[in-house]
Amino acid sequence: MKKVVKVVATSVISAIVMGSLSLPVAARETATDTLSVDFSRSTGAFRGGATGTLYGFGDEGAPTQALINGAAITNTSQKAPYGTQHPSGDSLKVEDGFFAKHGKDMYIYVQDYYPDWSYHGGVLPGDTRTYDQATGSYTNAPNGIWDYLEVVEFVTEAVATKSAHAKDYVFIPFNEPDGGNWYANWSTMKSTFLDDWKATYTKIQEVYARHGLGHARIGGPGDTRWQPARSADILNFAKANSVLPDIFIWHELGIDNLRTFRSNVAAYRQLETTVGVGPIPINITEYGMLRDMGTPGQLIQWLSIMEDLKVDGQTAYWNYAGNFNDNSARTNSANAGWWMYKWYGDLAGSQTVNVTPPALNTVDTLQGIGAIDATNKRATVLYGGGSNNVSLNLSGLDAAVFGKKVDIEVRENTLSGAEGVAGTPRVIKVLDGIALANGAVSLEVPTYDRYAAYQVVITPEQDRTPEVDKVWTAGIEAENTNLTAATVYTQDPLQGGGWKFLASGGRDVGSFNQPTSKADWTVTVPRTGKYRFQVIGATPGTPGRHALFVDGTQAAPVQYTADLALTTYQKWQYRGSTEVTIPLTAGQHTLSLRSSEDGTTVLPNSDITLDKFLLTDVTDGEPTVYPASTLRYAGGARVTYGTAKARGYGAVRGAGQRAEVYANAWESGYYDLSVDYRTTDAADIDIRVNGRSVTKLTAARAGAWRSTARVHLAQGINEVELSSAKEILLKQVTTTRAAASDSAAVTIEGENTVRHGTTVVNTYSSASGSNASGLKGIGFIGNGAANTFEVPRGPGFDKAGDYDIAVSYANAELSGAHAYNPQVVDRRLDVTETGGTASAGHAYFRYTYAWNSFLERTIPVTLSTSGGSLVFGNASAYAPDIDKITIAPVTVGTPTTIATSK
């Protein structure tokens, strides 16, 4: 039994100890807020519906399956079949990915059949068209049937006949009917709306009935806000006519809605009682403003309300489809919003408990969610939103579940920008074997950025010793560096009604546009080695460059990809990130980010908003630990405390059981995937990465083991699933970068491939700021079967088997127009193998903001020959432009297993 009680705090304090993080004065002189969590007072089963999305899905694989599964999205609203409102997001095209693990309810906006906003010019259609029910096309001739009723019918028919999940759909006939979409003037349009509600409701049920699908779920009315009078009229009518909505819907948009949300739901529930219906489930199918997206300290305020009220909600669609409404980054990476989704999804199977914040119904304050998972003996608190340090008062921890002592781990998730990459949240504080006092314990966590959120995990005392993250890292707000020829701007979260993206610490640095512009950071590093320097900032609409100097000597170029900048509220605020690795010797250094290499000429597109800098020691491959107590389990696998020397380990016992890890890779390449575990007999562990089995780990007999396989991981989030035909007791999974093995991968520049048909070489000027390798790439691929590029087989990929192909690509295609949503097109790239199967693999490639700005997307392929050339194209539409591809076997070497002492 462990004897030592260890309390270690990082976050703000750790960074100060490491001599690195400069804080605003207000953060250093702050008071303390208290969040009380009583785990003995259940508030019901965890619902998990608050992280729904509106158009969060683009096309298949946008987002990737790892992002979808990790975020545990249970509900989404998407475009109806045949819809023309947006070029992507068709429910039938994304449903397989959505329903693969956690998806429950697929909502569709039927009015999104129309291409414009507001629908049909904002005018209620009459009978001027005749529709083809099989294709959704029409001719301009009346046929005696209301045009929209025909639309409702063929949309419903498409779902009923083409979906594999028709019973899991919810039809929304009207979206924001009070906001200019046909029925805004209630005094004159009430009767029309009520009659139209009944007609559309009845038609949807007719279609499902003729296909033997039973009752079709219908959601509405879908008003822009809580409308008590309209809602009363609708419920009374719907009850009298047997057309009650199955889901009651309205929107909560705006800053002050954080104050009024609970009272609106209470008013609705009272209305149900008055009318004599319900309770009807609620979905707030649009919530939040730009300022909330990707910001964990904002998101937790919304999530806590909805989970407390047990209602579902979907983040509003302010930008483009396919990135969870700015809650994921790049093509496959997490931003801080994604990790907030992930933490929330981790609560599945729990009972939520009573949480008392400093104040309810108050905008931008400390809020939280508490939950207890009795099966895995895990209590969790998610919190954020406050500006002060936080004191946690935890009580009601039942000794029958947790024993007399507990382990507590606190993880921190800080703002990284809408497009900025956030790594696996770090353990910043540990209480190891702390004694409970009548089921209670208190702890304090310092906070420097109210836009961050925190995860607190409490377990019985484990045989694994919890530790603060060992990898050294430091950070500084850009405004706290020594600035020359640059301006600090305050980014008020209340400004502009919430139509803005937030900056870490509430300020950022702009006007970085002079040859002398620079930001100097003096930092002390603990040892000689390699360090990753990350810049979080906004590169508006085009790629750009800076120069990084170390102690006055130019050390490395800093290359940025473009960020979204189609509107004034995106430009300069839609922040992404870039990373560069540099060598540093132990001791103090001045890192200087500059707009010019020579102090005379500015670098291309160097006028970039700077928000925050992070420096991380990657000398040892940045080992990242995912302990068993925090993993997801399925099929009956669970955390166990009943086995000596394996208390707090994950028990995976046979067919159907698995443990899941969502592991971050800062860059595509090889990683040592190490599994620490115990066995009672010989056992194998099957390792699946991103949906396919890649290797097996083997223990020859009973004992304690560490097995390691060298596996290729895609840049971003990788879903790792572990299963075993026999029992294993899983302690932890660790990923460590093994860059030396990247030589096993083969990189081919696009211009060096064999081009066919219309495919051409593109050259980008240095002045463009492009991040294309060698400033060249290829375009006009696809849109015909002959327009391809070919890669002959060669050493490194001259065997049949599984490979990852990391594709550096650009796609800035837009289609159609919208008042505020960029109408992005996801382009598909197909991979075929000469002499092999019909398709080796394919993927959709999301928007990159500019044709000379390249992101990376990995295609998993299975090759069946050793000599067949790889051919890339798209017979039916244009593929993305290509900079280069890297082909990598999914594993290298032979897995190893060594005995460990525990």
TrEMBL record:
Signal peptide: 1-27
Coiled-coil residue spans: none
Descriptive protein name: Carbohydrate-binding protein with CBM35 doain
GO molecular function, one term: carbohydrate binding
Gene3D superfamilies noted in UniProt: Galactose-binding domain-like (2.60.120.260), Glycosidases (3.20.20.80)
Domain CBM6 stretches: 474-616, 746-888
Keywords (A to Z) from UniProt: Signal
SUPFAM superfamilies: (Trans)glycosidases, Galactose-binding domain-like
Entry-linked Pfam families: CBM_35
Organism: Kribbella caucasensis
